[in-house]
Structures are given as structure tokens and as C-alpha cells.
Amino acid sequence: MPRPHHLLLRAALAIAALSASLPALGGEPPPADAPPEAAPPRGKHCLYEPSRKILLSHTLAVQVNPLGAEHQLQLALCVPLFKKPGALYDLTNFEVGVSNYLSPSYVHQGGFVGITPLSLLQLKAELAGVYVWTIPIRGAGYYDFPSYHADFSEDARPKGEGDTAGGYVLSMSATLRGRIGPTDGAGLLIADTLLAERWSLGDGPYYYNLRRDILLESSDWLVRNNVALLVEIPLSSNVSTRICVVDETTVAPDSSRTTNILAGLATLRFRRVGTTFNDLQPFVRLGGHTHHASANQFRTGEPNLLIGVNTVYEIAKLDP
């Protein structure tokens, strides 16, 4: 298996070579007699500018109940889509790239493609190879089970008795988002993401999906819906805070097993730190399980804590 940094480096070089001849999608060429002082496009298609860019999104998060940690990298070529003026088109873009998700006991490596046909709608598809291994922590590794209704609590997944397994996951998502209020002032934001995943992992009839905290069949669908209602309050021209209520529901459709987490989330957002760092956001989410996708509901009523930081790096701007 190629190392993650080698994969990302090769992908960056390939994307840079490809993008040199790739035109911005949806843009109309200026007429030959256009005056030199004609105003440039004002959209915010790719990290606040109407320019093609290579971007690296970086997230590190740690969770309690269930216990876990994940390091995410997504390297993408972003190309403006529709350069028409107006709020409906200001954020439209097309993205293609590679991704790497790494935890102490699994890795996902693959590629993705995304399109934002309207500022309020984002669509994304991702295909990744998955490999799971065991570590000397209770519950970590590949554990198979006889049915959807088996007990998969930590006691049923003894330390060091997990196995290794490989497979893939196909993910497709759609996000609706909107804002009430000025972009440079206080505002109310709402986002709703519907995610469908097709997992194929291991040789057992059923297994514990460590990343989603749910039992799945060896080849199975999973659906997750995440709704967030945020209030954004600017602290300066470059810094704002966001206070958020989140409802996250995860379902295995064939078993009808459902997990729901209701939580509050707070972030501190730095729009730009230097010339490379953008949208630096440390965050903390605290809530609890109102339902759990286990036969004995062993997590229902337990708290859930998620702490992390996310940032976006502008690796290169490809337009003058």
C-alpha cells in the first residue's frame, strides 16, 4: 500500500500538470474589444476567489463514546463553474481530488469528485479502498458477528482479538445550505447533509463498522443525515465564532437500526492566517445519544464528545 504522503505528492503533481490546460468551466471569454479596465468576476468559487486553485483540506479530530481519532487529508483541484453574477452562482465550482483518512486502526485512501451547481447545493461522490487492523485497545479492529442483532459493545470486542480486513466504501452526498444575514456581519446559517454509503468489508456475514459505530452486513448500505443550525458572530474582520445545534442520524436501512446524536457545537473561525492557511477552525461538539443502533441500546443516554481542528491550505493559485 503506498504511503499517504507519497500518494498526495504524486496526485499534486498530476493535478498541477492537468490544470495547466484546463479552462475554467462555465466562464464566457471576454469580447475582443473589451476595455482593459473591465471589472473581473467577483464570485467566491474557490476559497473566496474566482480562480482555479489547488487546495488541501486538513482535519484532525478525537471522539469519546465511541472512542476514536481520525486524521483527514483531501487534496483537490478547484475550478470555478458558473461565473454569472448573483448569490445563486457565487460559490459554484467543480472539484476533483484524492483523499486519505487515517485512524489508529484503519485507513481509507481514494478519490472524489464534487460539483456545486448552485451556491446552496453541493454534490459529492467518493470511492476509497479500506483496510482495518487490530491494536491493543478494546474494540479496535475487525470483528465479525452472526446477525444485525448481536451485542457489539466493547465487552463483545475484547482487546487484541480483532482481525484485519480489506474492502471499499462508495460515498455519495448532497448538502443544502443557506444563510440569513449579511456575509460580513452576524448571520443565521443552516446546513443539511444527506450521505449514502455502500460498504464492502471483510469475510464475515456481519461486522462492526468502527468508523460509523454500527453493525453492517459484509456488503451493505448506510445512510446518515446531519442537520446543523448555526449562529455566526463576527469578532473582527478576520475572526468569527459560530454556535451551533447539530442533529446527526445514522441508519442501516436493511436492519432499521438507528443512532441519533443531539449536540451543541462551537467553533472559532480564522478566515486567513498568513498567506497559506485559510478557514482555520478549532471546534468542540458536546451532546448525547438519544438512540443507539444496538439491540441493547448500550450507548443510549451516554454523552458524546468530539474535539478537533480543521483548516484549508491554498497550495497554488493557477490563474494570474
List the helices and strands and how they pair.
Blueprint: H1 4-19, E1 53-64, E2 68-80, E3 93-103, E4 106-118, E5 121-132, E6 144-145, E7 165-180, E8 187-201, E9 206-209, E10 214-217, E11 219-234, E12 239-252, E13 257-273, E14 277-291, E15 303-317
Antiparallel strand pairs: 1-2, 1-15, 2-3, 3-4, 4-5, 5-7, 6-9, 7-8, 8-11, 9-10, 11-12, 12-13, 13-14, 14-15
How would you describe what is shown here?
- Helix content is 5%, strand content 56%.
- The chain has a single domain, classed as Lipocalin (Beta Barrel), CATH 2.40.128.
Give a brief description:
The chain has 320 residues and is mostly beta strands. The protein has one helix spanning 4-19, and strands spanning 53-64, 68-80, 93-103, 106-118, 121-132, 144-145, 165-180, 187-201, 206-209, 214-217, 219-234, 239-252, 257-273, 277-291, 303-317. The strands form two sheets. Strands 1-2-3-4-5-7-8-11-12-13-14-15 form a twelve-stranded antiparallel β-barrel. Strands 6-9-10 form a three-stranded antiparallel sheet, with no helix packed on it.
Strand content: over 45%
Reported CATH architecture = Beta Barrel
Determine Rg (CA atoms, Å): 21 Å
Helix/strand/pairing category: mainly beta
